[in-house]
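Friendly challenge for the regulars: who can give me the structure tokens for this chain first? No prize, just bragging rights.
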Amino acid sequence: MPHPASRFLAEGPHVGIRPITRADGTEFTARALESKDLHHPWLFPPDNARAYGSYAGRLIDDPTKAGFLVCEQGDGSLAGFININNIVQGAFQCGALGYGAFAHAAGRGLMREGLGLVIDHAFGPMRLHRLEINVQPGNAASIALARSSGFRPEGFSPAMLFIDGAWRDHERWALTVEMRPRS
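First reply, four minutes later:
Bragging rights claimed.
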């Protein structure tokens, strides 16, 4: 069920971001099912209630993770999701981003706007200094989003993550607070 805009942590002209909740399961899993062709073979978001419950629970209960939903302005429908994983404080102040658009929102610029809002939130209230994105080399859409959001390529990691039954190579991209243009 869409949530009112007043629950947004931040908003832009077309989307707002808000924390993921356990109550988002029905819409999230329906959108994930509709988006299987878009996501395969890169991403496998939860597409049933049990998997969503585990996924949301980790993002909500684990202080080293933060989950955000990108919601369309107006009706609040879910356009995608952005997670910050492996959050480390102290001298590192870093987190690793993961994200996915839902099929109905793909190619409309909504995730780019949402990612900008999450980056601002991470570098602002969350007080992170660095964000990283690890993306499979063939995932052109994800690489384009990283590049257009100001991330710089930093390297290549062979057999980095176990995805879809195999160890997959990844390109490493990063952004620091100093790299963001000041408003």
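The first strand starts at residue 10 and ends at 11. The chain has a mean pLDDT of 94. Your move, everyone else.
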